[in-house]
Amino acid sequence: MSLEVNIKKKYKGFSLDVNFQTNGEYLGILGASGSGKSLTLKCIAGVETPDEGKIVLNNRVLYDSQKNINIIPQSRNIGYMFQNYALFPNMTAEENISVGLKLSKKEKKLKTNELLKMFHLEDMGYKYPAQLSGGQQQRVALARIIAYEPDVLLLDEPFSALDSQLKSELHTDFFDMLKLYKGEVLIVTHSKDEAYRFSENLALIENGAITGFGKTKEIFEHPKSLSEAKMIGCKNISPCEVSADNKILCTDWGMILKSNNIPENCKYIGIPSGNFETVNEPGANTIECKLVNVIEEINEYTIVIENNNGHENNPIYFNINKETWNNTKNKNELILKINDFYLLK
Amino acid sequence: MNWSPMLISLKTASVSIVITFFLGLYAAKLVVGMKSEKIRIFIDGILTLPLVLPPTVVGFFILLILGVKRPVGRFLLEFLSVKIVFSWTATVIAAVIVSFPLMYRSARGALEQVDKNLIMAGRTLGMSERRIFWRVIMPLALPGIASGGVLAFARGLGEFGATAMVAGNIANKTRTLPLAIYAEVAAGNMEDSYGYVAVVVLISFVVLSLMNYFTIRGSKYTDKDVSK
């Protein structure tokens, strides 16, 4: 199982230029809205045509601008789950599932019933999409695609049409259902949680270009570039200068940190907001700072601080347990120890 | 009251709506599928023109093409012995051309409103373009298409100007309801036109009710409480 995508497309003043390969493991494509995620999927499915490039699925060329190959979407055998599910509103759940199948009436009925059962929709077959809940619609959409036995499954923001309260409940259900499908899966999302939970590999996309690619866990644990750090939600980022004796000067914050493991081309430093610890005495990798703001969250506080020598326009955010913060003395003259940080290209 | 204008009108309107319906729908489908924006705007302008031109001007153009001294009209007369102008066929042609834009524009709007994602979904599910059109696009666009058809029917029934130009006002042959009303009033027989007027008002009212019915039906699939 492999999918090879290398395409360029100009689209309404936006230019897409993506290049990646999958190897059979679940691939997540993470990016903000408008970054070209959906357009990439649409090009793979064949409902949009790239300007140039190549798309190869399991050694079958789907699109090649040089050889003038452009297989119609009907023959690509790619399952595409649309953002709003795109269920046909004029058909019942059952009809939605069976409408694309090329089988006899009897076989269709058999297969549809089997799928309804598989997706826990036994009593929903006669209902129209408008009568189904968001979660049920999602399952009908998935059943409809899987009925067609596609070689690859493309999921375009599968949860964006659902209420946030429902989401976490449905995440588990949905991924269980997804395991019924044995094949390549690509999921496009703007949510880093979904990307982390779902995908073994991750591609980061920004302004129509892939800016990071690798194992999901590695990217989240050790981002290597500025865009990777931003994408996983690291709030504290500053340009930095590395000196010969393993010292890193964080230019925005006016502080110096030490590390024995500095990669080449290190231009930025990122500090995850969970990696701070309040201490009583200054020491290695500590900063003295003043308090700017305290934001109360559900389970913790987010503290906004500024290093005494730092710039005003780039404050540091860190999270702290509520009890620990309430017991902290000298809140206006904090000393913080930085336990871990990312050194970024 | 003479029933002949009513029969002629109903016959004309019925035949012309069948032609207008399919012609308008087909034209709408073609225009919606056009890739070039410029060509689409141009074609759309031409197809809509009969809606804004005075019906007499439309009639004038029909005469230009089909008049017995014009190439097409002469060809039909000399080789097929068919004389179109001042025949019943001419009332149908006038009604079709004048009512066409209403059908075309309604159908076009209805087709364009169908969610593009549904069409794309159909394609990725392996449905042929024909199947997508008949199973997805048509059912969803049907309320708009139907109300366009009803509107075009009403317009065809009420057609006066172009009909007078190309079909004349020949009693028992091309005298439709609107022409009969005009003829009676022109002859000073106001009383005799009451029946005709009543019929036209009645039919128009039924047509409007039908249109409302189709509009309400249009929201069927979006309501939560769809009855099975």
Structure in words:
The complex is a heterodimer of chains A (345) and B (228). Chain A is an alpha+beta fold. Chain A has nine helices and 21 strands. The model of chain A has no long low-confidence stretch (mean pLDDT 86). A six-stranded mixed β-sheet of chain A has the order 7-8-9-3-10-11, with helices on both faces. A five-stranded antiparallel β-sheet of chain A has the order 2-1-4-5-6, with helices on one face. Chain B is an all-alpha fold and 228 residues long. Chain B contains ten helices and no strands. The N and C termini of chain B lie far apart (48 Å). The C terminus of chain B is likely disordered. At the A-B interface, β7 of A face α6 and α7 of B.
How is the secondary structure organized here?
The complex is a heterodimer of chains A (345) and B (228).
Chain A: E1 3-11, E2 14-22, E3 27-30, H1 37-45, E4 52-57, E5 60-64, E6 69-70, E7 78-81, H2 93-98, H3 105-118, H4 134-147, E8 152-156, H5 164-178, E9 184-189, H6 192-198, E10 201-206, E11 209-215, H7 216-221, H8 226-231, E12 236-242, E13 247-250, E14 255-258, E15 268-271, E16 276-278, E17 286-296, E18 300-307, E19 316-321, H9 322-326, E20 334-338, E21 342-344
Parallel strand pairs in A: 3-9, 3-10, 7-8, 8-9
Antiparallel strand pairs in A: 1-2, 1-4, 4-5, 5-6, 10-11, 12-13, 12-15, 13-14, 15-21, 16-20, 17-18, 17-20, 18-19
Helix pairs in contact in A: 3-4, 4-5
Chain B: H1 4-32, H2 37-52, H3 55-66, H4 71-80, H5 88-112, H6 116-124, H7 129-157, H8 161-167, H9 177-186, H10 190-218
Helix pairs in contact in B: 1-5, 1-7, 2-5, 3-8, 5-7, 5-8, 6-7, 7-10, 9-10
CATH class category name of chain B? Mainly Alpha
Helix content of chain A: 10-25%
Give the SSE order of chain A as H and E letters.
EEEHEEEEHHHEHEHEEHHEEEEEEEEHEE
Alpha plus pi helix count of chain A: 9
User: Rg of chain A, please?
Assistant: 25 Å
In order across it, which strands form the biggest sheet of chain A? 7-8-9-3-10-11
DSSP summary, beta strand count of chain B: 0
> Can you summarize the main beta sheet of chain A?
6 strands, mixed
Kindly name the structural category of chain A.
alpha+beta
What is the distance, rounded to the nearest whole angstrom, between the alpha carbons of the first and last residues of chain A? Answer: 32 Å
Number of discrete domains of chain B: 1
Low-confidence spans of chain B: pLDDT under 50, at least 5 residues? Answer: 224-228
- Helical proportion of chain B? over 70%
What gross morphology of chain B would you assign?
A: globular
**Low-confidence parts of chain A lasting 5 or more residues at pLDDT below 50?**
none
Distance between the termini of chain B: 48 Å
Q: From the 3D coordinates, which CATH architecture of chain B would you assign?
A: Orthogonal Bundle
Encode the helix/strand succession of chain B as letters. HHHHHHHHHH
What kind of sheet is the major sheet of chain B? none
